[in-house]
Design a protein that fits this description.
Blueprint: E1 2-6, H1 10-21, E2 26-30, H2 33-42, E3 47-50, E4 53-54, E5 57-58, H3 63-68, E6 74-79, H4 84-92, E7 97-100, H5 105-116, E8 126-129, E9 132-135, E10 140-143, E11 146-148, H6 152-163, E12 169-170, H7 171-178, H8 189-204, E13 208-213, E14 217-222
Parallel strand pairs: 1-2, 1-3, 3-6, 6-7
Antiparallel strand pairs: 4-5, 8-9, 9-10, 10-11, 12-14, 13-14
Helix pairs in contact: 6-8
């Protein structure tokens, strides 16, 4: 899940980025409406966390842009303006959820997970390819019924490939799914993660293979039992 966090408080922004990153979410953090508009032109987001009191305006002014952007993200308004009339105005403006400050970061993470599970974003609860299943609500992967624990980036890669099974996923799209725009992308970092993922799936008995289409991207497909690589 890719999240755009629009928050001008440095301490809070850093806290939320760490907390949501611990949920295997890719979090892009900006502090101004202008930067948020630029991010939405470049990337498709699943969830946007939107502060209202920003240096260059009211965050609600961005709702129309978000609704028209790629991916049609769910919008969670996060603000100190927590009075009932403020919540109503935020929801009427097009927000999907509204959380007043102060708040519990664990509750915010739970609300993001809930927004990400809504049918408009995740139409299938579980996606299966060969003997591998991806539960999109729990964000868990199992091989032949046994849960598979993966490092964060390898999980994000596998999720993206499984959700696009039968199609080649461009390398650039995988990078967008795995790295935030503030993350340092190591040389051949994506290829290294995919190599480790292949090995983990092979050891676990996964009957799939991840193939490369040189110059374009990667795809996942089922293989006969015992021949996954």
């Amino acid at each position: 899940m890719r999240v755009l966090l629009i928050e001008d408080d440095n301490a809070l922004g850093a806290l939320l980025r760490r907390r949501l990153g611990g949920e295997s979410m890719v979090v892009d953090w900006v502090r101004r409406l202008e930067d948020a508009r630029g991010a939405c032109r470049e990337f498709a987001y699943d969830v946007v966390i939107l502060d209202r009191g920003l240096p260059d305006g009211d965050g609600l002014d961005l709702v129309g842009t978000l609704r028209a952007s790629a991916g049609k993200p769910r919008i969670l308004v996060l603000t100190a303006r927590g009075a009932t009339r403020e919540r109503i105005s935020g929801l009427d403006a097009g927000a999907d959820d509204y959380l007043g400050k102060p708040f519990d970061p664990d509750e915010l993470a739970a609300r993001c997970r809930a927004l990400g599970r809504r049918p408009a974003i995740l139409p299938e609860e579980t996606i299966i390819i060969a003997n591998i299943s991806l539960n999109q609500s729990l964000r868990s992967v199992s091989v032949a019924g046994t849960k598979l624990t993966l490092p964060r980036r390898e999980l994000l890669i596998l999720e993206c490939l499984i959700r696009n099974k039968g199609r080649v996923v461009p390398r650039e799209r995988l990078l967008e799914q795995v790295y935030g725009f503030d993350d340092e992308i190591e040389s051949n970092g994506l290829e290294t993660n995919i190599s480790r993922l292949r090995k983990t799936l092979r050891v676990a008995g996964g009957q799939v293979e991840i193939r490369v289409v040189r110059g374009i991207g990667y795809f996942i497909r089922a293989t006969p039992a015992g021949s996954a690589r």
